[in-house]
Amino acid sequence: MRLLMSCVWCCALAAVAGADDKDKWATVKGRVVFPQGANLPKPGTLNVTQDKEHCLSKGQLLDESVLVNPKNRGVKNVVVYLRPDDAKLTAEFTPQQIHPDDAKRKPAEVVVDQPCCVFVKRITVARVGDTLVVKNPSPVAHNFYWESGNNGSHNPNIAKQTDWKMPNALVKESPPIPYKCSVHPWMVGYVRVFDHPYYAVTDENGDFEIKNAPVGKFRIAYWHENGLRGGVKGRAGDPIEIAGPTTELKPTDFDVSPKP
Q1: Alpha-carbon distance 198 to 213, whole Å?
Q2: Which homologous superfamily is 106-196 in?
Q3: Signal sequence span per UniProt (predicted)?
Q4: pLDDT tens digits, 130-174
Q5: Which architecture characterizes domain 24-35+66-98+203-260 according to CATH?
């Protein structure tokens, strides 16, 4: 009888501990929108000067540097990420602020594709320890020019219907890293490398979701290839209070127009 009661008591304690643990984490959702009153940008046509037969085989290529959904003004390809509640740019999350399930994550192969003379995805996000793989399924050759402070310089030629794998795993690098194809100079993209799991890229509706974020006071930052929301000050992010199970933010205005 005593043994049975002990087992029941242990199970009850485990259930309470599990419930308490769930209260420490939340999902953060939001939408990034182009400001009301501002004229919506429309993608222009790219000047295709090389391998036209292939590159234009599915129609004109459009400039994807600014993509805004005309139905809801949602901005695509904005990288949204959390930061500690600290104005110092060197501030890092503590181990206690990283969800326990993240320890199960294995380094991934992050793919950049180029099926028809544009990069897919144009904006790539990765974690420290991941490896970049560049695919070329097309019938023409490409190259992949990449120059960074911490992740080396690369400029491999990628023959048609072959892949190239970056020789070293990605290491921490705060600035965005641009990449391009010198053979087709209109082809550009960017990668952001994070040392934590709290980041996302907005979809075609401008929506994003960050799961298993720690509850409490933090900061949230928004980056687009045309700059940071809030300019230089935006590097530190805006204050945010996260509460479980879900924190749904109000739509965030972000004018991602190219700076003059």
Answers
A1: 7
A2: Cupredoxins -  blue copper proteins (2.60.40.420)
A3: 1-19
A4: 999 999 999 999 999 999 999 999 999 999 999 999 999 999 999
A5: Sandwich (2.60)
